[in-house]
From TrEMBL:
Superkingdom per UniProt: Bacteria
Keywords annotated in UniProt: ATP-binding, Cell membrane, Membrane, Nucleotide-binding, Translocase, Transport
Bilayer-spanning residue ranges: none
Species whose genome carries this gene: Planosporangium flavigriseum
Domain ABC transporter: 10-241
Protein's UniProt name: ABC transporter ATP-binding protein
Molecular-function GO terms, alphabetical: ABC-type transporter activity; ATP binding; ATP hydrolysis activity
Entry GO CC: ATP-binding cassette (ABC) transporter complex, substrate-binding subunit-containing
């Protein structure tokens, strides 16, 4: 970690923020961000994630609630007093200045000595691979290079909190992946507590030490990426945090026989006394399903799509339910083929049919 970087924990307490007609963009939000962590905030458009970033930056004021940086209450502090760095969707650089001049602007205003500024710029620019571009103006470099310069501009002031609002959304997929990796390495090197807002599941899961999932201004779940993926608290989170379509299948459970009926097949559980309701929703990710050939199988292949070296199948059950499964390219099923399902039951998720809440972590067969 760069010497002199101060790591601060952030706490949001019961924050409320409304816009227009009393609509709450952030609704009673409680969130703890650990010192030095990279927290990704994930949610669909309108979920309140960018509003949270604006509240942390001081660009918007809470209607009620408190915001703490460490043991300092910053709720009423203006942005310039919060010691933050912000990177927006579009690189905020001065068009008439060189990248070097834009990057050095804030520390100059803060009275940082020239030699120290030059040393910081050299350090950050080398890490971001823009040293050779520092004397060019924004219109003379590419979009990805402008965003690297914007990140450098945010870092040279040595912020205790770095805020990033979908900074790669305007870039192509390959460049986004490259910059994501750079930001993760940058965070490890510079150590500033970082909040990264995104609507991209792959981005959030791939970058964050933890992921905070928002919907309708409320926090649904905060967890490390793998825990979030494997143990979502409800069907909405499970479906939203999914790189492939999530299968949500109706299931009937016979407690006396210890059996479940799924897509025309009956599966016996390991014990007859499972704490399961008579009907529930089974959540199964496509990678936790496999198809096996079966001349009299209950399912029929509708489509087969290549996904790299895997094949994504959509199959239909006798009751009309569609199921999505991933399979290896070593065994390819043609459309209309009859198949049966093999389920990775310990990875299956049991949800309450009415509320959508998770009620059982896995099933043993």
């Amino acid at each position: 970690m760069i010497t002199g970087t101060k790591q601060v924990g952030v706490r949001i307490e019961a924050a409320v923020k409304s816009f227009g007609r009393g609509q709450r963009a952030v609704d009673s939000l409680d969130l703890d961000i650990r010192p030095g962590e990279l927290l990704t905030v994930l949610g669909p458009s309108g979920s309140g994630k960018s509003t949270v970033l604006s509240l942390l930056a001081g660009l918007a004021e809470v209607d009620s609630g408190r915001i703490w940086f460490g043991d300092q209450d910053v709720t009423a502090l203006p942005p310039e007093a919060r010691k933050i760095g912000v990177v927006f969707q579009s690189a905020v650089l001065y068009p008439h200045l060189s990248l070097r001049e834009s990057i050095s602007f804030a520390p100059k205003l803060a009275g940082v000595p020239r030699d120290e500024i030059n040393a910081r710029i050299a350090e950050v620019a080398a890490f971001l691979q823009i040293s050779h571009l520092l004397d060019r103006r924004p219109h003379e470099v590419s979009g990805g290079e402008r965003q690297r310069a914007a990140i450098a501009k945010a870092l040279v002031s040595r912020p205790t909190l770095l805020l990033m609002d979908e900074p790669f959304s305007a870039l192509d997929a390959q460049l986004r992946r490259a910059l994501r990796s750079q930001v993760v390495r940058l965070h490890r090197e510079f150590g500033a507590t970082t909040v990264f807002v995104t609507h991209d599941q792959e981005e959030a899961l791939g970058m964050g030490d933890r992921v905070a999932v928002m919907r309708g201004g409320r926090l649904e779940q905060v967890a490390p990426p793998l825990e979030l993926y494997r143990n979502p608290v409800n069907t909405w989170v499970a479906n939203f945090v999914s790189l492939q379509p999530l299968n949500l299948l109706p299931v009937e459970y016979d407690a006396q026989a210890g059996e479940v009926k799924l897509c025309g097949e009956t599966v016996r559980l390991a014990g007859p006394d499972r704490p399961l309701p008579a009907t529930f929703t089974l959540g199964i990710r496509s990678e936790n399903l496999r198809l096996r050939p079966s001349a009299d199988g209950p399912l029929q292949v509708l489509t087969a799509e290549a996904v790299g070296e895997q094949v994504k199948y959509t199959v239909v059950a006798p009751d009309g339910t569609n199921v999505v499964a991933l399979g290896g390219a070593d065994q390819v099923f043609e459309p209309d083929a009859k198949v049966a399902l093999a389920v990775d039951w310990p990875r299956a998720m049991v949800f309450d049919t009415e509320t959508g809440a998770r009620i059982v972590e896995g099933i043993t067969v």
